[in-house]
Amino acid sequence: xxxxxxxxxxxxxxxxxxxxxxxxxxxxxxxxxxxxxxxxxxxxxxxxxxxxxxxxxxxxxxxxxxxxxxxxxxxxxxxxxxxxxxxxxxxxxxxxxxxxxxxxxxxxxxxxxxxxxxxxxxxxxxxxxxxxxxxxxxxxxxxxxxxxxxxxxxxxxxxxxxxxxxxxxxxxxxxxxxxxxxxxxxxxxxxxxxxxxxxxxxxxxxxxxxxxxxxxxxxxxxxxxxxxxxxxxxxxxxxxxxxxxxxxxxxxxxxxxxxxxxxxxxxxxxxxxxxxxxxxxxxxxxxxxxxxxxxxxxxxxxxxxxxxxxxxxxxxxxxxxxxxxxxxxxxxxxxxxxxxxxxxxxxxxxxxxxxxxxxxxxxxxxxxxxxxxxxxxxxxxxxxxxxxxxxxxxxxxxxxxxxxxxxxxxxxxxxxxxxxxxxxxxx
Length: 427
Prior knowledge:
Largest sheet: 5 strands, mixed, barrel
Helix content: 40-55%
Oligomer: single chain
Structural class: alpha/beta
Number of strands: 13
Mean pLDDT: 84
Order of helices and strands: HEEEHEEHEHEHEHEHEHHHHHEEE
Distance between the termini: 208 Å
């Protein structure tokens, strides 16, 4: 079988026409691939047609190599970076020298090197963002957040009187951390901390603080979170005016204390925090009570309570003494003796009244008896009259009621006798 050499006739001494290459990348196959040079040319052609773009970022690395400089730009909000090449003459036009940490805007154009297959972002222009521009941007952001109500005092949460556990976000082994911990323990030795260290300035500050804030906010044992650093320049404090961080603080469920420690340039973080402390030391004084002061307050309150109770007891004792000094309680037998005399007098009056009633009744009975006696038949009989009765005991009132020879019974004033009728007649 004859040997085939790419770019030569199919076999030695034979001539084979070259294959027609695929028009698009999608039409390539293992049997009909593109040469690498064609792919590189097409990529370069496509990339060259791309427009240049202005971007904003922060310089995190800067290296000078002859006529070219290489820098790395990082997004100020998220963990994302991009390497950039810039020629010396372009860099010299910036006026102010760039350094790591500088905030810049740059005009970038993608450039593809076909020989090495390397994609490079080339800076055609780069400008440092001035302090005035930064302040104007921050002022616009502050007005926007204020209009949304993020600075409303009604949204701010009240700090607990005595937090169970304190979350602290600050730089590693920083003076701010030492100040907060030392002053909190001086005021309340039993206070406990959950300390998280991260960058508090530069491009790593925002993601680091937001990550630790989310972890501490999710911990149910954390009652208050302190974010502290020891002041700094306007540029150093830029992460604490980052919109993403400010919104994360606003959406947290745990009360947050700002202890940035800068009076002249207040970052937006101070406005949205539940409590702003002027310094880390001031934050320590605001989040826990002073045990000595609270002890004195307890002693004072106990003394006031004892005095109040004693006043109540004294007042009640005076009232009780006044009640006991009344005659009815001082000499209770006086009341009994008075009632005894009153009872004797009432009994005497009752006896007199009863006696009078009896005597009056006796007189009335005598009067009625004399009246009854004056009307009695016996009184008539005593005057010489007699009552004649038949055998049945009926009084005889008419002579025709008897006959001659019949026996009648005669009752006189003193005794009775029987008589026989010898004659009858009328008068």
